Amino acid sequence: MDFAEVVSDPDTWKLVAVLSLGIFxxxxxxFAAGLLIVPLLLWAGYTIPEAQTSLLVAxxxxxxxxxxxxxxxxxxxxxxxxxxxxLLFLPVGVLTLQWMESFSVMTLRQxxxxxxxxxxxxxxxxxxxxxxxxxxxxxxxxxxxxxxMQGLVGMxxxxxxxxxxAHDWDTRRSRGFLFSMYLISLAPGIAVLVWFFGARVIPPAxxxxxxxxxxxxxxxxxxxxxxxxxxxxxxxxxxxxxLLMGLAGLAAPWLxxxx
Length: 259
Prior knowledge:
With 259 residues, the chain is an all-alpha fold. It contains 14 helices and no strands. Helix 2 (10-29) runs antiparallel to helix 3 (33-43).
């Protein structure tokens, strides 16, 4: 398929539209890119590996910007163990995903819907009390789980976010840490997906890369909207949307007309 065919292909613009929506919400509300993008692309006809790869490529500029912006709040030593734990368990998640690809599309939609629903409910109801330090057990749980979920369904953020919320860190330190964790796993995540799933994940990744100028404009717009409307109001709207998407994923066999 040449460049003109790619540009004229409706699937190309489906992918760009979904990535734009996820990146916009991420910029405006501060979270939820993966929770939105992966299930929407699955409903649009893409596979989970294709959705994951395009998501990782699409978030490269945002994460680089985040690390540069908050570099003065980063502590290099605190990034090593969490980053290593995520990277260690990421291939385990991808290997499990490879096994899961034998499942039907409906079952995969239900798995992703359940993941979105659980992550949203945890974010809504689990509000840890911030403290200076957290027991090491929670780190041993959060970061391997984050790496596994990243490899499995492209949603590794929620365990890390909850771990960060349990600390009495200011906004700059919290966001800098999360951006660093995402950035550390981007290149290895893409490499592992290509290794396990081959050439079929490359076209969506290339389209996502070509769409980066659009996504930068979307990021700028999302930041402005988030500032104008307020993060908490957008958070409530986003949570409602995620709950709806999670329930839709679980109900996929009943929502999809028979062929």
